[in-house]
Amino acid sequence: MNRGATLVFESSAFPIVEGEEDETSPGVFAQSLATWLMGRLEDRGIATTMLIGEDYGLLVGIVSDPHKLYVACSNADETGTLWQVFVLVEEGSVSRSAKVDKSTQARIELHRSVKDILSKEPVIKFLRERA
Prior knowledge:
Elements: E1 2-3, E2 6-10, H1 31-43, E3 48-54, E4 57-62, E5 68-75, E6 82-90, H2 93-98, H3 103-119, E7 125-130
Antiparallel strand pairs: 1-6, 2-6, 2-7, 3-4, 4-5, 5-6
């Protein structure tokens, strides 16, 4: 997987949902944030597939071919007000074999869209990037 920079921000707009740790790991929350972000991406015409639970958070699946794109969401501390989001790309065998790898460009474009969504949302404060 190819991963971009992490977007970190503060917001009290994404409440912790009871039982959401069943999809991730204890102390890892992202249900409200991931669901909200999925809607905002759809509003921009970026088709999403589903939420996928991982140990480190929830992935928003993005419709993309020949590679798979995801936006990973999770809390960044125990307060429930510090959050992190980053874009992952999984290259497909077709793109590797054809040596036409546009996955990095797709990741960068999705990262820009996510950053723009977050930067325009009034309930999100102190948005910054971390390598």
